[in-house]
Please model this.
Amino acid sequence: MWSAELSLALALTIPAVGGVFVALLGNKPNLREGATLVSAVLLAINVAYLVEIAPSEPTLVLANIAPGLQLTFKLEPLGAIFAAVASGLWIVNSLYSIGYMRGNNEKNQTRFYVCFCIAIASAMGVALSGNLLTMFLFYEVLSLSTYPLVTHKGDENAKRGGKIYLTILMGTSIGLFLPAVIATHFLAGSTDFVAGGLLALNDVQPMIAGILLIMFAFGIGKAALMPMHPWLPNAMVAPTPVSALLHAVAVVKAGVFSILKVGTYIFGPALIAAAPSSEPLAWIAAISIVLASVVAITKDNLKARLAFSTVSQLSYVTLGVMLASPLAMLGAALQIIMHAWGKITLFMSAGAIYTATKKTEISQMRGLGKYMPWLFGAYTVGALSIIGLPPLGGSWPKLFLMQGAWDAGQAIMIVALVASSILNVAYLLPLSARGFFAPADEAKLKKQPPALVILPPVITAAGVIVLFFLIGPIRDYLEPVFMPLASAGAL
Amino acid sequence: MDFLVNLLPSGLAHHAPALVIVIPLVAAAVAALMPNGRLGWIVAMVTASLVAFFSLVVLGLVLSDGLISYHMGGWEPPYGIELRVDALNAVVLALVGVMGLLCVIFALPSVGDEIEEGKQALFYSAFLVALAGLLGVTITGDAFNVFVFLEISSISTYTIIAMGAGKDRRALTASYNYLILGTIGATFFVIGVGFLYMATGSLNMADIGQILQEQGYNRVTQAAFAFIVVGLGLKAAMFPLHVWLPNAYAFAPNFVTAFLASTATKVAFYALIRFLFSVFHPDVAFVELSFTWVFAAVGVIAMMVASSQAIFQTDARRLLAYSSVAQVGYMMLGLGMGTAAGLSAGILHLINHAIMKGALFMALGAFALHFGVRQIRDLNGLGRTMPASAGAFTIAGLSLVGVPLTIGFTSKWYLITAALERGWWWAVAALIISSLMALAYVARMLSAIWMESPPEHHGAKPAARHAFYMVLVPMGILAFANLYFFFHADVLVGLAEAAANAVTGGH
Model:
């Protein structure tokens, strides 16, 4: 009865059906939130099973749409890990959403939770996709389903942000991603994800592969490689749970995950290394890393600062893919996991501060740490993980990326990574310092935020510590994806 | 479709090609005699159902048995008139039949609202003549017959466009404009046919093709080619001969716009393909040159210019009309590739475009019916007041952009693949840029529908309206088809490939 195929189908249907229940239970808020939580837990259990069976690479054909065109799911370790991150954090984030949305008396909560379910379902679709066509389809559904979430407030500001959001994401995907997909189909006769790289197996010339690589790198706008990044800061008009799960985890990680998956299974590391455009793209990623960090320092609005920090951190993944050495790509995969846990902690902290005090600017947040020690503690742990200090999960991707850059003969990229860490300190830690050590502006806090907005960031902060020690199993799990192609001397 | 054929006694199925045009012609006379609009509609409805049925029978027969040659009055071709149906025109015939039926369902509430009661029966009569004309152009194998049916459909079309005058008197000038240009086009076409007759002494299209292959081409046939391309290009709204179209679509009754947008230009485009491939031969130097330097070129220009014009329109139907001109450009580009893959992608887009535009114009018709919507700013807040129609509009609009899960995506996929096979990178770029412009103009309408709040009258928000079932059903079918044929793209792709192979032989 229970089979791998069923489990693959369930990964898509659980959140979708959950969305239907949320819609039906719209006027009973407690049951409605119950539906969200139940689907989140069921999905996480299902995905845990998928993680377990991923090495056997089961496939599921969703639809035969025309000769040579199929919608398929194919499970493999990278997708399983991304699905695990997104579904695991969905549970935590659902708890947080309940606290936040009720604490701030947001309107249209049913629409909010329904769109959230669809977004998670499409993130699962991207994670499990077995070919480029399927990936593109769910990628677009993800853009469209998150649009109502971005414009949730409905005021002029939200509409403007939503317009930029949709214009850039749809524009890049239709303008560059789609033609790249069709060109891949034309060159290789299929768009399947194949170990070793579809295009490499079809002996596509490095020059043409280079052009395609550029189209993918910029066409996958969700990866926010500069100059395609402005949608991300503009998406911050959304309620904070959206920024936390979607714009730190599901949406942006769907972007960099797509780049990683395309790099691994469509091009293959050897072809990326041979393509003339990979080095310029690595430089663009490095510039994005440093430049976005510098911009982040100038932002006083906490969410805007975190958004630019995300732009910077996402380019780590793009950089890792473009370096194309096994360790760099492993580092890119690890960054997807580690950054997700760290950044969601920071966003949930920002939202908790807002719920408690309605403050959005860092300069106003003096002395709040004394009233919310757990929250500021969680924030600090998340920040230190992003900076890359052990014993926190965020230190591993940096280490692997640096080693990978060395292996790829691009030692100069290590400088960008170190510079980024220093800049991270400069823009993330002032809030902790201010919170804990500066005297408070006001006598006391108006009200303590609900426990449901404090607890989730504490959980994820704890997760960041645990992930540091889980590196062994995670590495063993992911290594077969990158290592069969490794050159003899790699670590 | 065999089960449809089996429903009929074999003798009747054999006559299906003739019945497809005879039924609406006779019914037009009956409709004119009806005392009121409702009876007129019933006649139109019965006729359209029969036409849709017989057109599907013809398609079924062609797909199972191959070419049908029906001799009118028993006279042997090339002396008598031949109805000649291969996969290409069978597909177009079925498209016109089915779209005609869906539009007629939609007509009951829409025409009831827009045309004054006393003229409704006559309106349906003129519509049936137009339908017969379009079907006739599609099914006939005789070049002069094409002209006759083209004029039959055109003249009745001028009439039904002008009937929009009840709502907006600019419909009269729009119709007059179309009349002048349409007549010029028809004249060009008949001159071309005359030249061909001079050169070959035959009017049967297959026969002309044969004779031209044997005796070769000369200046007269080249001139004929030019006249015919211009004449049919005008009817097909080929850039820059499209100037009649935006106003005609914007001011005609909503039902007429929905019907014309999903059938009329498609039929003219079919006739163009027929002349290029069956009468003239695509391997002949001047025909081959025209693919790249006329059709592909004007196709790309239309995609660029008309799409950018669409972005800046304020009238909703005018916007979609410019979009139609651009979409005809996609088909011309597919045709201009001169390959079987290109032509089949063009035909696929022809079918898909009919489905999308049908749904879009019907949704606009529903909006007009309840809220008098004409301008884009009138669309504000319709997502809340008419959610079902707005949903259908959204699906079809996304299809127009080419978002996955819709048939628009399938069209783009095959067009771009065909362009890549041909090695035309510039055509790929043009398709992409035009899609982005489509995104811009569709987003304008969708953001008005979903993001703006409905206008308030005296401080009260307008109540939500339930669209009539007669609107919801055909619109829902078309919106659903936009999604369904994404997952079952092989159905339409198969038809388009069969159609293209019928005239190219698969090369």
Observations:
- The first strand of chain A starts at residue 59 and ends at 66.
- DSSP finds 19 helices and two strands in chain A.
- Residues 485-491 of chain A have pLDDT under 50 and may be disordered.
- Residues 277-491 of chain A form one domain.
